[in-house]
Amino acid sequence: MNLIAILSDDEFFFKKEPLILLSEVLKKQNITFVWPENEKDLLNVLENNSNLRGVVFDWDQYSLELCEKINQYNELM
Length: 77
Hints:
Blueprint: E1 2-7, H1 13-27, E2 31-34, H2 39-48, E3 52-57, H3 64-76
């Protein structure tokens, strides 16, 4: 199973809609999506799922620190 986590704010339609469209297209390629509710939830998904193939998040909303944490998990895998 290939899994991609998408961390996105529901507040802005113009940011959320392209991610929904992307997920619909990639589902046809047998890619499953999870939508963590917040940064802590995303890090929990990273820590507990070896099938995770990628993370998409809003660079404007989340800090460089989140990117560094994701990179740390990537190095462990």
